[in-house]
Amino acid sequence: MQALQVGVFDFGSEADLRFSVELPEGVEYGSIGNFSWAPDMQIALFIIAYSDSCFPSGYSLRRMNFATGQVINLLEKESQTVSILEWKESYRALVSIDGQNYWLDPNSGEISVAPLPFP
Length: 119
Fold this sequence. Notes:
By secondary structure, the protein is mainly β. The chain has strands at 3-10, 15-22, 29-37, 43-51, 56-65, 70-78, 82-89, 92-97, 100-104, 111-113.
């Protein structure tokens, strides 16, 4: 099983935090990005785009707890684009799945349709 290495620099403590993220079986390549920090700055959500050498084949939304080093997979989508739009409240983050907006519970990974306009 392949793993990606991620480094995050904490400007407050000047610590260089490093962690590994496992890719699913059969996936050789991936890229990590679209980081969004919790209001308390202790947890981050991020996206992994799985790919072959040219085209994304799936997306994963993960949560990283910097105090424990724990990485949790909250959401997996095959052939659907996933992005994090905002995270202003600790109990929900606004995400987009194939252009449709949803509220994501950052603890459970449950999603619900986000009505327009957004608060």
